[in-house]
Amino acid sequence: SLVVLFGATAGAYGAKLGSDERELILLVWQVVDLHSKKVGTLHKSLVKADNLDLSDQCREVSALTPEGLSKAEPLDRVLQQFSQLVSSDLKVLGRSSYTLCSDGQLLIRQVLHPETSKKNFPLSDCFYSFYDLRKEFHTCYPSSAAVKDQTIKTMAEYLGLGTDEAEEDFGVWQVKTMVAVIFSMLSEGCNHIFTEPETVKYKYETGPCSKSETVDSETVIRARGLPWQSSDQDIARFFKGLNIAKGGVALCLNSQGRRNGEALVRFVNSEQRDLALERHKHHMGSRYIEVYKATGEEFLKIAGGTSNEVAQFLSKENQVIIRMRGLPFTATQEDVLGFLGPECPVTGGKEGLLFVKYPDGRPTGDAFVLFSCEEYAQNALKKHKEILGKRYIELFRSTAAEVQQVVLNRYMSTPLIPTLPAPIIPVIPPPYTIATGSIRDCVRLRGLPYTAGIDDILEFMGDATGDIKPHGVHMVLNQQGRPSGDAFIQMKSADKAFMVAQKCHKKMMKDRYVEVFQCSGEEMNFVLMGGTLNRSGLSPPPCKLPCLSPPAYAAFQTAAVIPAEAALYQPQALLPTTRTPQASAAAPPTVTYYPAQAAQLYMNYTAYYPSPPVSPTTVGYIAAPPGAVAAAATATHTPILSQPGALVRMQGLPYNTGMKEILSFFQGYQYAPDDYNGLIQLSDQARSVLQAPKEWVCL
């Protein structure tokens, strides 16, 4: 028997059914006995949605009203009634089993499964198998329109069925016409047999993916905007109703091995992928998820792996994978098993553990663990941030693709300390360096569009462009290496700066007005150190001294390239004036660097005048390869370190860690004295900052 099913939502109708996440408001069905060609009672049931605001298209097509729907039963009750009434009709017809038959796949895949998943109640087994009447019709009548172009009306017209849609209620006409189409397909001329129903997977199957596999680009999508704690099961739930390929969810990681809110998902065929694209900007919790096309090559880059160790670890299928992070480097398999305890046994004992290591064999502090069921995994997740040794351990849900990406792509191919690409045109600037005096020959632009470039600023200033000092435009980046909306411009005189501030203040650039303030080099330094400047004067920076320990990632942006010799660069504009000019006259001349593709007259690239608390001096120090440091040491005839092995690298610091916290961490150990001259060529001004009280200095 077939149960012919039709439904409608409070939003889009037809080919866009379910694409707007609107709830189901109508179900109409009728049982059809394929052998006796008898039918049961036709049933129509309204469904009370949580949001009764109907779209204009819905009102026009269905003639339903919010008042009528408010008296209906909710979806879970309607589905219970559906099962009871179908069973009753089957008994009357002398049948016991049935399969659903719907007009296309949207009602089952794009409406019922996603909505019940979000509302956390299960669908009965009958909704996991159904016949697509459009496909069956095209199989029976190959000369008819393509499947994607079929509708109930076109099928009826092809068969010459004389039905009038206006004579019946919405939904009733559709079901009666579908039943008439089925009887035509069962007639002696066709004798169509319904044999291969569409299926919906009950659950997502995990599994490894080899780089040697061939992945069809027409089956892959990229999901963006995912909550960082999302697992492969969460993503599979977002695409509930669609069939994801085995091991087809690959969570993307950033360069630090952390999830970046994106995932690549591989479906069993292009039809399922096309339905997934219709879920663009559907919601996962309170967040909307963007869905785009991707390629098979991108999927293999994230999910593919060839390591025998990983393949053996992932060979146990249908296991729940948990990722552990922050393990002590001395932790053993016994330590991890003891930490997890008997309430969450690991599959295969030690064989269910996979420690992630660097190419040289050193542990990274990460490990993956296999559990045979959801209960054991949940017990393990309850130990999130419990202590092992002297460290708290983080536990997250993970995927087979993440295992391969972390073990192979990240740690097996990436050096421990990334190095910067080599740009490089060194430019010896003319004597137009940033001044530190009180002459107000500079202007500050605030509120620039984030897409604004040097050309936009020059166009914004108009005729005053000729009064800018060469290399006098300094755009400011934030800590993430993105434009902050600020820029400083050095003018040839204070009068020129005054005229620009008067003429261009609150002038429009693109769709934003830009504020222009006259300032001096000293005030510019003040702002770069974290203070604020407006027409009311200066506001002090949040700390007394500049922070000389920038986040490491600020040094590794590809947009701004720093050459090896940048370790010797000392931007005096970022240091307070505490010594006389004669004291610093002996310092070697500064060298400014610009990327090769942007060595223009007015451009002083942003990386060297970033927003606080990043210091170009320390950026240069971090980025410099050993050769540059050795060159600096040779030039000053001072050893870099007092003895070999006296330098340590700290990894995994909290992002808000400051000098005081680091020194407190090393309390009881003797750290380097103040003689940093061998590391960077310093002026007396810079040295006066570095020789500040110990609580502000760390080496």
From TrEMBL:
One of its GO terms (molecular function) is RNA binding. SMART domains: RRM. The keyword ATP-binding does not apply. The keyword Repeat applies. Coiled coil: none annotated. InterPro entries: ESRP, Nucleotide-bd_a/b_plait_sf, RBD_domain_sf, RNaseH-like_sf, RNaseH_sf, RRM_dom. It is found in: Nucleus. GO terms for cellular component: nucleus. CDD domains: RRM2_ESRP2, RRM3_ESRP1_ESRP2. Keywords: mRNA processing, mRNA splicing, Nucleus, Repeat, RNA-binding. Residues 320-400 form the RRM domain. GO terms for biological process: mRNA processing; RNA splicing. Belongs to the ESRP family. This is Epithelial splicing regulatory protein 2. The lineage of its organism: Eukaryota, Metazoa, Chordata, Craniata, Vertebrata.
